[in-house]
Structures are given as structure tokens and as C-alpha cells.
Specification:
There is one protein chain. This protein is mainly alpha-helical and 345 residues long. 52% of the residues lie in helices and 5% in strands. The protein is built from 15 helices and two strands. Strands 1-2 form a two-stranded parallel ribbon. Helix 5 (114-121) packs across helix 10 (229-243). The radius of gyration is 24 Å and the shape is globular. The protein starts with 34 loop residues before the first helix and ends with a helix.
Length: 345
């Protein structure tokens, strides 16, 4: 979007986590990093220099975190970057922040944002890290109950050639969910009116069913489908996200996170872990509202990220051991472990 540029080739670039015997934050220089990470840092510095060259930027760098300091220092001393800064006409401040310093933000569910939910719940487009597959079967006359049916190519979110779709995507990113869904309805109604489709405008709350009924109007009109294909893909992504079971679980996550933030001052970590323990259920005991193994990993990352100083001791060791045991059992009982669980095990 106009305000956000993602660099998916560097999605795996993470600061090394401090471990026993590893280098301390103060002594990390490029030479102290593992070879793979060193290569990734140099690649990022080269990519950033190319980006800043295209924008004609002379940057002033700031860094928060050990790896960010390394990257900022490398960019400052990179020979092509020094030449670029001498001739660039635009000034910019660049702030590097270690991703591990904001894990709570990455795994939390506080955003009331439709784009975030679409990117979180719909399956990834093969070969892409920042786009999703949108099921297009609804726009066809093909009736199939087979979820693995792949005759129809999936839609996606990137619609650079459709101005209405681009404007709608900006709304998904910048507005609250309720307003963004209303924008989706407005764009659909305008598109249908332009194509003289028999649309009945209704007021009040927008439901996924209502959006689906509007989409159906385009189904048998090939010209209208072609003219508004990008917009229809974005609205279908909205419908599929709103109906997705993970979206209803989003509110459960949010409730738990709020409760945790309220009790954090009074509770110690062992009591929080003991509260979590009965919620860890194996595959056979779970209902659709219960947390899966991955959900628990996300919750644990959130808990440990927001807790601050954790007092070590026998009580903590016992509580952590119980949670570990329950999680290991739940992971081992999964009939079809997800790619993430397979990677972890």
C-alpha cells in the first residue's frame, strides 16, 4: 500500500535469541554472527541501498536492538551507500527495530483490522509470503463439496490493475473492520449499478451472507465478471474471512490477552501457567472452540513477552514442566500435524 512496503525475501531474518554461552548483546558485531545470518544481513543492506537509491534518499539511521545496530552500522559503512548519500537530494530518518523486541505485537490480537484478519486466516498463496488464496468457486456454476478441488485457480489480494480494488484494500488496511466491510458493500453496489445488475441496496449491518448474495449477481455475466474481477476477489476474501472459524476464535484470544494484562500485576507466572493448563486439550478432547497446539504456542509467546521480569524458582519449574508435558502429549496426539508442528518436532 502507499504506506507499507514488505520485503518478503527477508521474512526469515530474525535476531539470534540470547542463549547460554552465546555472544552478549554488547559484543555482537557482523563477525560474531553465524555465516547464514551474516549473508542475510549483507543481502538486506544491499537491498536497502538499492531501495534508497531508487527513492533518491540520504538516510540517517537509528537502531533499537543488537542486530539492528549491526545492520545500521553495515549500511553506514557500505561503500555504494556512502556514494549515494553524497549525491541524494531527499533526507529520511530510518529506524531499525529487532523483531524479537515486539513479539507481543506480532502474536497479539488487539487490532480491529480486516486486512490483518484476512492475512492471518486465509491459506497462503503458493510461493508467496504476503498474499493469500481466495476461493473463486462461488463465481462459477461448478458445484463441488470437495475441498481439495483445484480446477478453479485461486484469487489473491494483489490487484494492481483495478483502481476500485486498490482503493478497497487501502480501506481494509486503514479503517476499523466494521467500516471496511461497509466499504466492501459500497464498492460492490457501485460496480453492480454500473453493470445494470438488479441490486437491492439494504441498510444496517453488513453480513457475509449479504455480500455473497451481491457477488452472485455477477456470476452469469461474463462482461461484469471481467470488468470487476479484482474487486470481487477482495470481497470474496472478506466473506471467507468473516465465515472462517479462526475469526470467531480471534475474540477468544483477545479476551484472554485482556484478562492476562489485567491480572499481570497481581499474579506470578506459575499461577498464570496453572490457569492455562486445563485449556490444553488433545485432539480427541477438543471442540471447535478450543485452542489448538499452535494457538497455545502463540499464547505462550504472548504471555512470556508481556510478563517482563519472571522470578525463577521451584514453583515456576514445576508449572513449566506441567505445561510442557501437556503440550508434548497434545502435539503427539495430532493425527495430521500441521507443517509448523512438523517443523518443530
Amino acid at each position: 500500500s502507499a504506506e507499507l512496503c514488505l520485503l518478503p525475501a527477508l521474512a526469515a531474518l530474525l535476531p539470534p535469541l540470547p542463549g547460554p554461552g552465546g555472544p552478549g548483546p554488547a559484543e555482537v558485531g557482523l563477525g560474531a554472527l553465524p555465516a547464514g545470518l551474516r549473508a542475510a544481513v549483507l543481502s538486506l543492506v544491499g537491498d536497502l541501498d538499492s531501495l534508497f537509491s531508487a527513492l533518491g534518499l540520504r538516510e540517517e539511521s537509528f537502531a533499537v536492538g543488537a542486530l539492528s545496530r549491526v545492520i545500521a552500522a553495515e549500511l553506514a559503512s557500505y561503500a555504494p551507500a556512502r556514494n549515494r548519500r553524497r549525491i541524494a537530494t531527499n533526507k529520511a530518518s530510518v529506524i531499525f527495530v529487532d523483531r524479537t523486541l515486539d513479539l507481543a505485537g506480532a502474536v497479539g490480537h488487539h487490532g480491529d483490522n480486516l486486512a490483518e484478519k484476512i492475512l492471518s486466516v486465509l491459506p497462503k498463496l503458493p510461493g508467496h509470503r504476503t498474499d493469500v488464496m481466495v476461493d473463486m468457486v462461488e463465481l462459477t456454476a461448478l458445484q463441488t463439496s470437495d475441498e481439495t478441488c483445484s480446477i478453479i485457480a485461486p484469487g489473491c489480494l494483489a490487484q494492481p490493475n483495478d483502481p476500485a480494488a486498490k482503493a478497497l484494500w487501502e480501506s481494509f488496511m486503514n479503517l476499523k473492520q466494521k467500516e471496511a466491510v461497509m466499504e466492501a458493500r459500497r464498492h460492490l453496489v457501485e460496480a453492480a449499478s454500473r453493470e445494470n445488475l438488479p441490486i437491492k441496496m439494504s441498510m444496517g449491518e453488513v453480513t457475509p451472507e449479504q455480500l455473497s448474495s451481491y457477488i452472485q449477481l455477477f456470476r452469469n455475466n461474463l462482461k461484469a465478471l471481467e470488468n470487476h474481477c479484482g474487486l470481487l476477489q477482495l470481497v470474496l476474501a472478506t466473506v471467507q474471512t468473516l465465515k472462517h472459524p479462526q475469526t470467531s476464535k480471534w475474540d477468544n484470544f483477545l479476551a484472554f490477552e485482556r484478562l492476562l494484562l489485567q491480572t499481570i500485576g497481581d499474579s506470578e507466572m506459575p499461577s498464570v501457567l496453572n490457569q492455562l493448563l486445563p485449556m490444553i486439550k488433545s485432539y480427541n478432547e477438543r471442540t471447535k472452540d478450543d485452542y489448538t497446539c499452535e494457538d497455545f504456542l502463540v499464547l505462550l509467546i504472548y504471555i512470556y513477552s508481556v510478563f517482563g521480569e519472571i522470578r525463577c524458582g521451584k514453583e515456576l519449574d514445576t508449572a513449566e514442566e506441567e505445561v510442557k508435558k501437556a503440550l508434548v502429549k497434545a502435539i503427539c496426539d495430532e493425527p495430521e500435524p500441521s507443517p509448523l508442528l512438523q517443523k518443530i518436532t
